[in-house]
Amino acid sequence: MTDVAKPEVLARVLARIVGRQPETEVTLAALDAGRHVVLEGPPGTGKSTLVRTLAEATGLPFLLVEGHAELTPARLVGHHDPSRVLAEGYGPATFVEGPLVRAATEGALLYIEELNRVPEETLNVLITVMSEGELHVPRAGTFTAAPGFAVIAAMNPFDAVGTARISSAISDRTCRLAMGYQSAAEEREIVVRHSGVADSPWLAGVVDLVRRTRSHPDIRVGASVRGAIDLVLLAESLARLRSTDAHSAGVTVDAARAALSGRIRLHESSNATPEQVVTALWGDVFGEPAERGSLPAEDGRLGKAIRFPA
After folding, report:
1. How far apart are CA 297 and CA 45, in angstroms?
2. Using CA atoms, how far apart are residues 193 and 234, in angstroms rounded to an integer?
3. Are 167 and 189 in contact (CB under 8 A)?
4. CB-based contacts of 102, cutoff 8 Å, min separation 6
5. Cβ distance 64 to 109 under 8 Å?
6. Which contacts of 5-13 are long-range, i.e. CB under 8 A and separated by 24 or more positions?
7. Rounded CA gap, 156 and 42, in Å?
8. Fewer CB within 10 Å, N- or C-terminus of the chain?
């Protein structure tokens, strides 16, 4: 167990992130109780930001592991150095600690991204150390977890491409916290903090456009607030190149296509292109014809709400 469930720690975290007070409180409480946590939500909902901020606010050491299909048990736990094994034989001295052993022995937070993309055989090495606080490595010995050690993992919902269900053995040893998209006001504040632009009706429209990608009937996976941040930054730079206003129609629609078309995933049954869908949504929000010279939608086809002047 740790001693992190303090109002001053909570205040330090909330001062550095936008919203997320209930999620912060529950995660701090879980760490204080010596529990492990899984944060589940779509990309761009601030899971990594929350964990990094918690680590900095609590002063706990922090190790990051990127979850993917090539993450083997040896990469997570550690391995014996082949050259030293040839010279000295197997033993504790030849063992090279991986992030799991380092986090456990240092009493650190081990943050695993994309947990449900990690092979099951790799996840299985977490079971004993999460429940018993010990990790046995053949020919290296038994490593005991120091106070403060905890696993915090993040994962996308199961139906995301490339994900798999987490075994009940892992689920039974973690507290799950669902993290959905934040409110429009909070997403505007996030964009303001990351882009440096002032809040305005135009910025509200940009955030509205991005949020609409999450409910459009042709879109299976919508864009996160990162799309709004990129759209704003692209519009600012593009406006300087064109010596015009970033809020102008031609600049905004071009920035929207570039920032969002690669982020959204359309349903297989859709006959539209990503550029067409983004253009149509842009027209629904801003209701203006694109200026002459703006990039056309893919294959020259325009969205349903957009008309370009001849």
Report:
1. 29
2. 16
3. no
4. 63, 108
5. no
6. 5/29, 5/31, 5/32, 9/57, 9/58, 12/57, 13/50, 13/53, 13/54, 13/57
7. 5
8. C
Question: Strand pairing partners for 63?
Answer: 110
Q: pLDDT 10s per residue in the chain (310 long)?
A: 567 778 888 899 898 989 989 999 999 999 988 899 999 998 888 898 899 898 888 888 889 999 888 999 999 999 888 888 888 878 888 888 999 999 999 999 999 999 988 999 999 999 999 999 999 988 888 999 999 899 999 988 755 555 667 888 888 999 999 999 999 999 999 999 999 999 999 999 999 999 999 999 999 989 999 999 999 999 999 999 999 999 999 999 999 999 999 999 999 888 899 999 999 999 999 986 544 445 555 544 433 333 333 3
CA distances from 249 to 179, 202, 246 (A): 34, 11, 8
Tokens 């720690």 found at: 9
Q: Check the CA dihedral 284-288-291-292 and report its sign.
A: positive
Q: What are phi and psi of 176, to 5 degrees?
A: -100, 135
Return d(Cα 98, Cα 112) in angstroms, integer: 13
Q: What is the rounded CA–CA span in Å between residue 306 and residue 239?
A: 21
Please check whether residue 166 is in contact with residue 115, taking contact to mean a CB–CB distance below 8 angstroms: yes
